[in-house]
Amino acid sequence: KEFDLLHYLAVRPGQVVSKRELLTEVWRMAYGGADKTVDVHLSWLRRKLGESAQAPRYLQTVHGVGVKIVDPGA
């Protein structure tokens, strides 16, 4: 699912995507408070990208809204 998550965000650069949308579109699950699933996969993905939530390079969290992928060179 990490690749699916990365792909979903990558085709929407700069667009904030909610956890609810990620659960619906990437996991094909109805939202039921399972947003920790998204958090865990984002954490694994960040680790593989060589970043952390405290020092993001590619995946930026917008508190209370969602997450977006950005170009660190832009």
Automatic annotation (TrEMBL):
Gene Ontology biological process terms in this record: phosphorelay signal transduction system; regulation of DNA-templated transcription
Name of the featured protein: Transcriptional regulatory protein, C terminal
Keyword entries, A-Z: DNA-binding
Pfam families attached to this UniProt entry: Trans_reg_C
Organism: Streptosporangium canum
Chain ranges of the OmpR/PhoB-type domain: 1-71
Alphabetical list of SMART domains matching this protein: Trans_reg_C
Recorded GO MF terms: DNA binding
Family matches, as InterPro entries: OmpR/PhoB-type_DNA-bd, Sig_transdc_resp-reg_C-effctor, WH-like_DNA-bd_sf
DNA-binding region extent: 1-71
